[in-house]
């Protein structure tokens, strides 16, 4: 990854940064300065790339680790960001409470390693629906808490979860829940302020809603479903909505939030 992406500000075009909020338009391969125009362009190109993944035109090794997620992100966002497929270099959070996995301490990979351990130790082919929902909720909670990328974590993690589900008699139809339900469950699954482990209970009803049985009698890849998983409920918000991380607040404030706020950084480095 280019060395220029080594601070919160370096991800933005300097001339677009609001001095009061410290946010701006993410640097992009289109050289587009308007955040809303960038969102539309990003959505168009990532949709094409997601269809390629769903149609099997591009194969991603199912290793269920950080490399797996980087490969998905790299393919989806290769037309948009120079840092596609690379971990973020800055700390981030959404709303009050504990931030996402720390870059400095290697916590991002720790969360992803824990997710992989759960994926590879589960007998997905014989799993019951209830156990599938519970286990998938936990896997996603760890991936979400890792939040490895500066932008595009949601779309990347949905493709990843579709790959997990390929091993089972079930698939995901993410269009069965609203963005508010999805974001609310994700936000509530974050660890308590000084804890490490996510709390996936809030995601169980969400994954119960999006889990459907495969039409084919055998478990295995469902390419059409994978496309739907990648595209549904994934229209990106403008990059300019990303803001710095506010001072961390107590767990009660985080639990009371209705859902995600904008991505935030920890400040100048």
UniProtKB/TrEMBL annotation:
The keyword tRNA processing does not apply. Keywords: ATP-binding, Nucleotide-binding, Nucleotidyltransferase, Transferase. Residues 242-254 have a biased composition (Polar residues). Residues 64-213 form the Fido domain. GO terms for biological process: regulation of cell division. GO terms for molecular function: AMPylase activity; ATP binding. It holds the Pfam family Fic. The keyword Transferase applies. Residues 217-269 are annotated as: Disordered. Its EC number is 2.7.7.108. It catalyses: L-tyrosyl-[protein] + ATP = O-(5'-adenylyl)-L-tyrosyl-[protein] + diphosphate; L-threonyl-[protein] + ATP = 3-O-(5'-adenylyl)-L-threonyl-[protein] + diphosphate. This is protein adenylyltransferase. It comes from Arthrobacter ulcerisalmonis.
């Amino acid at each position: 990854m280019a060395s220029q992406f080594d601070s919160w500000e370096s991800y933005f075009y300097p001339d677009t940064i609001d001095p009061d909020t410290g946010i701006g338009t993410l640097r992009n391969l289109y050289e587009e300065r308007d955040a809303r125009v960038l969102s539309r362009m990003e959505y168009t190109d990532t949709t094409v790339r997601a269809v390629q993944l769903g149609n099997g035109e591009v194969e991603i090794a199912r290793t269920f680790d950080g490399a797996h997620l980087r490969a998905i992100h790299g393919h989806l966002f290769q037309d948009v960001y120079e840092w596609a497929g690379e971990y973020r270099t800055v700390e981030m959070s959404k709303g009050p409470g504990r931030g996402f996995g720390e870059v400095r301490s290697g916590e991002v990979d720790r969360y992803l390693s824990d997710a992989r351990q759960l994926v590879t130790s589960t007998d997905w082919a014989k799993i019951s629906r209830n156990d599938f929902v519970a286990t998938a909720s936990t896997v996603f909670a760890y991936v979400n808490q890792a939040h490895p990328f500066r932008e595009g974590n949601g779309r990347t993690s949905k493709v990843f979860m579709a790959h997990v589900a390929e091993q089972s008699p079930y698939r995901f139809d993410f269009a069965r829940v609203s963005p508010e339900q999805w974001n609310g469950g994700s936000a509530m699954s974050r660890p308590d302020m000084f804890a490490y482990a996510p709390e996936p209970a809030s995601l169980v009803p969400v994954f119960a809603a999006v889990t459907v049985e495969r039409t084919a009698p055998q478990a295995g890849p469902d390419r059409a479903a994978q496309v739907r998983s990648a595209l549904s409920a994934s229209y990106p918000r403008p990059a300019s909505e990303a803001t710095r991380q506010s001072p961390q607040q107590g767990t009660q404030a985080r639990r009371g939030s209705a859902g995600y706020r904008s991505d935030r950084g920890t400040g100048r480095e």
